[in-house]
Design brief:
By secondary structure, the protein is an alpha/beta fold. It is built from nine helices and ten strands. It has a domain of 135 residues: Rossmann fold (3-Layer(aba) Sandwich), CATH 3.40.50.720. Strand 3, helix 3 and strand 4 form a beta-alpha-beta unit.
Length: 264
């Protein structure tokens, strides 16, 4: 299958590309240019004639501002319109767990919602299978160093006591290699428009994550009360695609620690 990928050199993208290359029938084209400059890479995509596209790129993170979110929304819609014109059979884009709340959590989740709904309509009008993969809290080797788990690992390695103000908050943590496997399976097996949650299906306290990394760490109760993030219902992807998470949080962190310990 000819697969075009944006964000293929990013955190999730690197793991996904490695997974997709295990299938010798796949031919991959990774976007290495700026998403905004569609004119500079449009011809390359036209010549490649992708049968499927995976859109992972979202420029500017961790900037979740309205300005950055709107820019990325427009980049995604420009890409969707181009793929529709090229008759790409299947397009997968990634969302966020925060979008399923009754109201948008922030500009980022609002933009993701808009990209989902508008791309779905473009796909419907052009007979394209549009797949929305809703990602929960992805962690693992290659994640930004200022993210929770890399930060906690760094604190352990340097002997610094981490500042944890949200120890009681719960998130659905999902290991990046499990996410890569899920997306690879979806792009191969899914033959319709669909929405799939990709998460562990379990909520874990931030304080418990910190204790896995540093068992002797004393965790004080959070001063700030936060609503827990949503938990993934993975029953649909399990039934239709045959995927389910393999890596429990303790094992995922164990696999992640050596990566950050080696890049002090």
């Amino acid at each position: 299958m000819r697969i075009f990928i944006t964000g293929g050199t990013g955190f999730i993208g690197k793991h996904l590309v490695k997974k997709l290359r295990e299938d010798k029938d796949n031919e991959l084209l990774l976007l290495s240019k700026d998403l905004a400059d569609i004119g500079t890479w449009k011809k390359e995509i036209e010549d490649f004639k992708p049968e499927a596209t995976i859109h992972l790129a979202w420029e500017g993170l961790p900037d979740y501002s309205a300005e950055t979110s709107i820019k990325n929304l427009n980049y995604g819609l420009d890409l969707m319109n181009l793929l529709a014109k090229l008759h790409c059979k299947k397009v997968l884009m990634v969302g966020t767990c925060w979008e399923i709340l009754a109201q948008p959590f922030n500009a980022f989740s609002a933009a993701k919602n808009a990209l989902h709904w508008l791309s779905r309509e473009i796909a419907k009008e052009n007979d394209v299978h549009f797949i929305w993969a809703r990602l929960f809290f992805v962690y693992g080797p290659g994640q930004r160093k200022d993210s929770l788990i890399p930060y906690l690992i760094n604190c352990r390695e340097t002997g610094k006591k981490p500042e944890i103000k949200t120890a009681e908050a719960k998130n659905d943590f999902i290991y990046v290699e499990d996410v890569a496997e899920a997306i690879a399976m979806i792009i191969k097996k899914c033959q319709k428009s669909a929405v799939y949650n990709i998460g562990s299906g379990e909520l874990t306290k931030v304080g418990d994550v910190a204790k896995i990394i540093s068992p002797d760490l004393e965790i004080q109760q959070s001063e700030i009360s936060l609503v827990s993030s949503p938990c993934a219902d993975v029953s649909k992807i399990k039934k239709e695609i045959g995927w389910e998470p393999k890596t429990i949080i303790k094992d995922g962190i164990k696999k992640t620690i050596p990566y950050y310990s080696s890049i002090k």
